[in-house]
């Protein structure tokens, strides 16, 4: 399709967009009494209007049933997480038994590393990507310290080549081969938070396992955003947050994946009573008998007030389907890219998109170096109703989330951006 940088063209795309009506199912902040253009769904998704009803249901059950809500609520609390199995499995490409919801993201990654990072002898090293999200870096450092290793020795970062913004697949594979029989774990972010690069999960997983390592993925920026086939790709484990592309609310519950090949294994884990045999959980038995599947990694009583917004969201995803989301994602991201290039022609500044141009290596994010511009441009955008994200030294991250972003939003953003640079 040949794009045009006009309002009429953008509105024409919106009129043909099968997902356009979902905008009305979200609550948008306002700036200057006008709905914002929201580009930070890669940090915190907007609130779906249906969320409140899911929370109110639990509040009402708590008021009317108190402790009996565990068993007699409309959605009983004691097995509330089981309602996620079917819809989440479709979002991440898993069997229903391979997914669960609990805790928060880094907590779950730590718990999963108890099972999947088992350094022994010379096999103790972890491969991750350079400039991983800081929480992951702190996690790696503390994990290897706990096991008695030095981070500078045990943590191997795959680096970008000089002058390049993204990591090449061949460099990932070469590093795995180089570390070889010293490699215990590969754990990478499925989508790099800074550049928006999407990694080849299938190929990297196969390479890591061929080297004798376990392979896990931090899918914080990937779940609900890219096509995932965790079961078929033979991924050992994964975890993700729910508050970015899945709109479950700030700091909310995390999802976990454990491949079924590990469900009957004797992997170590930190246990708690919510992971105990469901039918015998309230018999208060002294010895741990884990639930079969990912639910066997559960530890504590479920925070159902936190899970309710997440359930509202995954049921919306079930209505839409990942294929439809990804189709719009690719199209609207390409239109945003076009708008940026068009505005670039009209101003003296230079925009350098550091996210890969290959659609297979990117998703709902364009990270843009604003050469010749500083923080003042970001401040201008925010004051004029464009909610975006600033990263030093002068990068803005733009995430046109397909559920609630419109093509007209992309056009309007371009016009506001141009005015901010020209000083009009």
UniProtKB/TrEMBL annotation:
<keyword id="KW-0662">Pyridine nucleotide biosynthesis</keyword>
<dbReference type="GO" id="GO:0030429">
    <property type="term" value="F:kynureninase activity"/>
</dbReference>
<feature type="domain" description="Aminotransferase class V">
    <location>
        <begin position="106"/>
        <end position="246"/>
    </location>
</feature>
<comment type="function">
    <text>Catalyzes the cleavage of L-kynurenine (L-Kyn) and L-3-hydroxykynurenine (L-3OHKyn) into anthranilic acid (AA) and 3-hydroxyanthranilic acid (3-OHAA), respectively.</text>
</comment>
<comment type="similarity">
    <text>Belongs to the kynureninase family.</text>
</comment>
<keyword id="KW-0378">Hydrolase</keyword>
<feature type="binding site">
    <location>
        <position position="221"/>
    </location>
    <ligand>
        <name>pyridoxal 5'-phosphate</name>
    </ligand>
</feature>
<dbReference type="GO" id="GO:0009435">
    <property type="term" value="P:NAD+ biosynthetic process"/>
</dbReference>
<comment type="subunit">
    <text>Homodimer.</text>
</comment>
<dbReference type="InterPro" id="IPR015424">
    <property type="entry name" value="PyrdxlP-dep_Trfase"/>
</dbReference>
<feature type="modified residue" description="N6-(pyridoxal phosphate)lysine">
    <location>
        <position position="244"/>
    </location>
</feature>
<dbReference type="GO" id="GO:0097053">
    <property type="term" value="P:L-kynurenine catabolic process"/>
</dbReference>
<dbReference type="InterPro" id="IPR015421">
    <property type="entry name" value="PyrdxlP-dep_Trfase_major"/>
</dbReference>
<dbReference type="Pfam" id="PF00266">
    <property type="entry name" value="Aminotran_5"/>
</dbReference>
<feature type="binding site">
    <location>
        <begin position="133"/>
        <end position="136"/>
    </location>
    <ligand>
        <name>pyridoxal 5'-phosphate</name>
    </ligand>
</feature>
<keyword id="KW-0663">Pyridoxal phosphate</keyword>
<feature type="binding site">
    <location>
        <position position="106"/>
    </location>
    <ligand>
        <name>pyridoxal 5'-phosphate</name>
    </ligand>
</feature>
<feature type="binding site">
    <location>
        <position position="218"/>
    </location>
    <ligand>
        <name>pyridoxal 5'-phosphate</name>
    </ligand>
</feature>
<dbReference type="Pfam" id="PF22580">
    <property type="entry name" value="KYNU_C"/>
</dbReference>
<protein>
    <recommendedName>
        <fullName>Kynureninase</fullName>
        <ecNumber>3.7.1.3</ecNumber>
    </recommendedName>
</protein>
<comment type="pathway">
    <text>Amino-acid degradation; L-kynurenine degradation; L-alanine and anthranilate from L-kynurenine: step 1/1.</text>
</comment>
<dbReference type="InterPro" id="IPR015422">
    <property type="entry name" value="PyrdxlP-dep_Trfase_small"/>
</dbReference>
<comment type="pathway">
    <text>Cofactor biosynthesis; NAD(+) biosynthesis; quinolinate from L-kynurenine: step 2/3.</text>
</comment>
<dbReference type="GO" id="GO:0019805">
    <property type="term" value="P:quinolinate biosynthetic process"/>
</dbReference>
<dbReference type="InterPro" id="IPR000192">
    <property type="entry name" value="Aminotrans_V_dom"/>
</dbReference>
<dbReference type="InterPro" id="IPR010111">
    <property type="entry name" value="Kynureninase"/>
</dbReference>
<feature type="binding site">
    <location>
        <position position="105"/>
    </location>
    <ligand>
        <name>pyridoxal 5'-phosphate</name>
    </ligand>
</feature>
<feature type="binding site">
    <location>
        <position position="273"/>
    </location>
    <ligand>
        <name>pyridoxal 5'-phosphate</name>
    </ligand>
</feature>
<feature type="binding site">
    <location>
        <position position="243"/>
    </location>
    <ligand>
        <name>pyridoxal 5'-phosphate</name>
    </ligand>
</feature>
<dbReference type="GO" id="GO:0019441">
    <property type="term" value="P:L-tryptophan catabolic process to kynurenine"/>
</dbReference>
<feature type="binding site">
    <location>
        <position position="301"/>
    </location>
    <ligand>
        <name>pyridoxal 5'-phosphate</name>
    </ligand>
</feature>
<dbReference type="GO" id="GO:0043420">
    <property type="term" value="P:anthranilate metabolic process"/>
</dbReference>
<dbReference type="GO" id="GO:0030170">
    <property type="term" value="F:pyridoxal phosphate binding"/>
</dbReference>
<dbReference type="GO" id="GO:0005737">
    <property type="term" value="C:cytoplasm"/>
</dbReference>
């Amino acid at each position: 399709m040949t794009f045009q940088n006009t309002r009429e063209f953008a509105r024409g795309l919106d009129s043909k967009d099968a997902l356009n009506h979902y905008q009305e199912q979200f609550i948008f902040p306002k700036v200057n009494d006008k709905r914002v253009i929201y580009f930070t769904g890669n940090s915190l998704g907007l609130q779906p209007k249906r969320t409140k009803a899911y929370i109110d249901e639990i509040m009402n059950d708590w008021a009317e049933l108190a402790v009996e809500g565990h068993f007699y609520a409309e959605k009983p609390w004691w097995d509330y997480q089981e309602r996620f199995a079917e819809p989440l499995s479709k979002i991440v490409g898993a069997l229903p038994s391979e997914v669960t919801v609990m805790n928060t993201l880094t907590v779950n990654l730590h718990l999963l590393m108890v099972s999947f990072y088992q350094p022994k002898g010379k096999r103790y090293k972890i491969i991750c990507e350079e400039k991983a999200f800081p929480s992951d870096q702190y996690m790696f450092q503390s994990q290897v310290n706990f096991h008695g290793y030095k981070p500078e020795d045990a943590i191997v970062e795959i680096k970008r080549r000089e002058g390049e913004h993204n990591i090449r697949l061949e460099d990932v594979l070469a590093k795995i081969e180089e570390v070889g029989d010293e490699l215990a774990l590969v754990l990478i972010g499925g989508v790099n938070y800074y550049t928006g690069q999407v990694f080849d999960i299938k190929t990297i997983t196969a390479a890591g396992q061929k080297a004798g390592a376990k392979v896990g993925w931090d899918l914080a920026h990937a779940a609900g955003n890219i096509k995932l086939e965790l079961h078929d790709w033979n991924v050992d484990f994964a975890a993700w947050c729910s508050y970015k592309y899945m709109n479950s609310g700030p700091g909310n519950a995390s999802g976990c994946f454990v491949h079924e090949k590990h469900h009957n294994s004797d992997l170590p884990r930190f246990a708690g009573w919510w992971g105990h045999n469901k039918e015998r959980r309230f018999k208060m038995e002294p010895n741990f008998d884990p639930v079969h599947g990912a639910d066997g990694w559960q530890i504590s009583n479920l925070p159902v007030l936190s899970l309710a917004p997440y359930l509202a969201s995954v049921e919306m995803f079930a209505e839409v389907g990942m294929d439809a989301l990804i189709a719009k994602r690719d199209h609207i991201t390409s239109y945003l890219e076009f708008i940026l290039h068009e505005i670039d022609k009209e101003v003296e500044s230079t925009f350098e998109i550091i996210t890969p141009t290959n659609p297979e290596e990117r998703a709902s994010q364009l990270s843009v170096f604003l050469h010749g511009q500083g923080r003042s441009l970001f401040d201008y955008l925010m004051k004029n109703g464009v909610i975006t994200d600033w990263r030093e030294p002068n990068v803005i991250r733009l995430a046109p989330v397909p559920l609630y972003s419109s093509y007209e939003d992309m056009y309007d953003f371009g016009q506001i951006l141009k005015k901010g640079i020209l000083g009009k």
